[in-house]
Design brief:
The complex is a heterodimer of chains A (about 575) and B (about 90). In chain A, about 10% of the residues lie in helices and about 25% in strands. Chain A has about 575 residues and is of the alpha+beta class. The radius of gyration of chain A is 28 Å and the shape is globular. Chain A starts with 13 loop residues before the first strand and ends with a helix. The interface between A and B is medium-sized, with 39 and 28 residues. Strand 4 of chain A pairs parallel with strand 1 of chain B.
Chain lengths: ~575, ~90
């Protein structure tokens, strides 16, 4: 392995990243997932953590671009250069760029995630059988509205599971229309357009208006690529037109004729000789996950290695079951140490100096609850990486972790008291608490742990009872967050869903569960704590929080430790 | 059937790939990825320094170190790859 000259590395372990735009080749959630998995490759073997930001400047800014894309190293069209990244540092340093003239997949051909239909957004299954005929791409067969669809199992005739394929009729990417579909025809600079266009742009991205008139409404989005769309050329995103004429000969499939590099191409109109519209035919594509993992290696401080099997080797090679090579592990651990906390040689460790004697802190008990003394003053809430549960009880924020809890005083300017023992205050509760809320009307405290819950009224306890008693489904393993909504309604979060509990009637309201990301856009779907504090909703993942205001806008992403607990 | 087919190559509009010779392509590659120091590069198309650079490239890519622009080397250069340079100071 090699590191950059001077062993360039980040001076902090909590690295942030931001995805600036998306490729039209894959659905956004798949791209998000590929990047997240690529970061995990490195966080699995180091103490590094990666948190995604949705605005502002992140350490690693990730983007797709074509040819000249704003830095001194232009891309080169399809194949050849796939991506590049800069070593750690300020500004453009640390950023990773991906060539959008490549066909980005997971390495084994088009990745088509469906929307709507009855398959819950599953991937297309190619080939699939429909009315006895085999299909290897999305089709409009069997529909009168010209919408592309695919089966999500091998046999639609048997399973009848299907979804709609990406197209501009279904949604757009980026822009300013929140994913609204294209509106055809639309007017742009006085001219009418019946399809997506690259007019008005110099980066080759296809776009459309999402209202009838762009000139007046200025609403637009970028068009997702169909699975049959050509890559690069001068007709990116258009489907092949078969048959087409090339040098007076008729072609019924992609060809390498006319090229010296053997790449397959097709015309996107009937006659190439006349229109000269063309692009490369979709192939296996490049695994965004593998390329991103390599680029993020650069962004963390690794140079190219000459170990052929290592991730940091400069050439692309598809690997089905990827695991990080020992050469890569040694390289990254030289810079950041190992996951268990072993530090690299020659690293100076500065131990934080406590200036205040923790024994001198005067704990104030949770009002209305038995008075408890701190059990282990050396345990500082500021040293906790994350908490099992955070909730507001009697106006104070309570933070639970491993059988203990701390109380953030609302009276004494955010003073942190504790830790206290959970079993001393609430003897019936287990040491690990997933979520809790205090009913505003009755002041009863509801506490959830695994598939059970308890209800405390002062010192009296009811429970444990099964989650199903509240009307929650049996497949829920835990309740990860609870939010008061009004005086007798509470939202309970688990996985990607939430339910609304009528506390008074002790039942789940009709119409639930609902998807978290449909109601609470822009927050992590894998938040392990959700709580209400000072009128804002906080979604926590690891040590970070996403704050959502009353207008359901994420107005801040930050560190729980510094922003909420006010740790030094 | 007896007539040999002569392939016809066309220039596709918008295609960045140019009709560079292998030698031109290799020189561009060696410069771009840090194998040749542009400042001190000889004006000769395939000089001693190029042969040295090719050997270094071949070593890095696990190829036979011939110092020649052979088929295996040019094929390796045309493989999809990362745009970050292989060799720095």
């Amino acid at each position: 392995y090699k590191t950059f000259e001077g062993n360039l590395k980040w001076d902090h372990n909590d690295i942030t990243y931001r995805i600036l735009n998306y490729s039209p080749d894959m659905e956004e959630s798949l791209i998000d997932d590929a990047f997240a998995r690529a970061f995990k490759v490195w966080s699995d073997v180091t103490p590094l953590t990666f948190t995604r930001l949705y605005d502002g400047t992140a350490d690693i800014m990730v983007s797709f671009g074509r040819k000249d894309h704003g830095d001194p190293y232009p891309f080169d069209g399809k194949d050849g250069l796939l991506a590049h990244a800069y070593p750690p540092g300020e500004g453009m340093q640390g950023d990773a760029h991906f060539d959008d003239d490549e066909f980005w997949t997971l390495g084994t051909g088009p990745v088509v995630k469906t929307r709507f239909g009855n398959a819950g957004g599953a991937m297309c299954q190619f080939p699939f059988i429909f009315q006895g005929k085999s299909y290897s791409s999305c089709t409009t067969e069997g529909r009168s509205d010209n919408m592309l669809w695919c089966a999500t199992t091998a046999d639609f005739d048997k399973d009848e599971l299907y979804g709609f394929c990406p197209s501009e009729y279904l949604y757009t990417i980026g822009g300013n229309s929140d994913g609204a579909p294209c509106k055809f025809p639309f007017v742009f600079l006085g001219e009418s357009y019946d399809s997506c266009t690259t007019e008005g742009r110099d980066d080759g991205y296809r776009w459309c208006a999402t209202t009838k008139n762009f000139d007046t409404d200025k609403k637009y989005g970028f068009c997702p690529n169909r699975d049959t769309a050509v890559i690069g050329g001068n007709a990116e995103g258009e489907p092949c037109h078969f048959p087409f004429t090339f040098m007076k000969k008729t072609y019924y499939s992609c060809t390498s004729d006319g090229r010296g590099d053997g790449k397959l191409w097709c015309a996107t109109t009937e006659n190439y000789d006349k229109d000269m519209h063309w692009g490369f035919c979709p192939d296996q594509g490049y695994s965004l996950f593998l390329v991103a993992a390599h680029e993020f290696g650069h962004a963390l401080g690794l140079e190219h290695t000459d170990v052929r099997e290592a991730l940091m080797f400069p050439m692309y090679d598809y690997i089905k079951d990827f695991s990080l090579h020992s050469d890569d592990i040694q390289g990254i651990q030289k810079l950041y140490g190992s996951k268990s906390g072993t530090l690299p040689p020659n690293t100076t460790v500065v131990t934080p100096v406590t200036t205040e004697d923790p024994m001198e802190t005067t704990p104030s008990p949770t009002p209305g609850l038995p008075t408890q003394q701190p059990i282990d003053p050396s345990q500082d809430a500021c040293k906790a990486e994350k908490f099992d549960c955070i909730t507001e009880i009697q106006g104070d924020l309570h933070l639970f972790k491993n059988g203990k809890y701390w109380r953030l005083s609302s009276q004494k300017d955010g003073e942190i008291n504790g830790p206290y023992s959970i079993s001393d205050t609430w003897p019936a509760l287990p040491p690990t608490i997933d979520s809790a809320f205090q009913d505003l009307l009755t002041k009863k405290l509801y506490v959830f742990s695994g598939r059970r819950f308890w209800v405390y009224t002062g010192m009296n306890v009811l429970g444990p009872r099964s989650l199903e008693k509240l009307g929650l489904p049996s497949n829920i393993m835990r309740v990860e967050g609870a939010l008061q909504r009004g005086r007798s309604k509470v939202l309970l979060f688990s996985g990607e869903n939430y339910w609304r509990l009528d506390v008074k009637a002790q039942v789940i309201d009709k119409g639930y569960p609902r998807l978290i990301d449909l109601t609470f856009g822009g927050v992590p779907v894998d938040a392990h704590d959700v709580f209400l504090y000072n009128g804002n909703i906080y979604f926590c993942r690891d040590r970070f929080y996403w704050r959502m205001n009353s207008r359901r806008q994420v107005d801040r992403v930050g560190y729980l430790k510094y922003d909420v607990l006010k740790c030094p | 059937w007896g007539r040999s087919l002569k392939p016809v190559f066309v220039t596709f509009p918008g295609d960045i790939a140019t009709n560079m010779t292998n030698e031109e392509f290799a020189n561009t590659y060696l410069e771009r990825f840090g194998y040749i120091n542009v400042q001190h590069r000889s004006r000769m198309p395939m000089s001693t320094s190029t042969a040295k650079a090719l050997r270094q490239l071949q070593r890095n890519l696990g190829l036979e170190q011939t110092g020649q622009l052979d088929a295996a080397t040019i094929n390796a250069m045309k493989m999809p790859r990362c745009g970050v340079v292989d060799v720095r100071n």
